[in-house]
Amino acid sequence: xxxVWSKKSRNLxxxxxxxxxxxxxxKMKKLNVEVxxxxxxxxxxxxxxxxxxxxxxxxxxxxxxxxxxxxxxxxEPIGFGMWADxxxxxxxxxxxxxxxxxxxxx
Length: 106
What we know:
Layout: E1 2-6, E2 11-15, H1 23-26, E3 31-34, H2 37-50, H3 54-72, H4 92-103
Antiparallel strand pairs: 1-2, 2-3
Helix pairs in contact: 2-3
């Protein structure tokens, strides 16, 4: 992968290398990100301190952030209410009691 910088607009363009891409790179997508001047300087400083390219720093940051972001998503109760229209669910407590009585008799 190569990094293309446009200092004027502070665009970070992550592009696949002209060389043959590895298997992992072949599955990657191109990403164009605009950052503020301050963020750009910070990215450069962090990358230099870590001894990696800005591109690698951004990849690592995204990889670390995505699991955290997924855990912050609201819970989607997809199955809740799916039996609401069933007649036996009009009195769910009685239905459970009857089921237990039938199934759990000694």
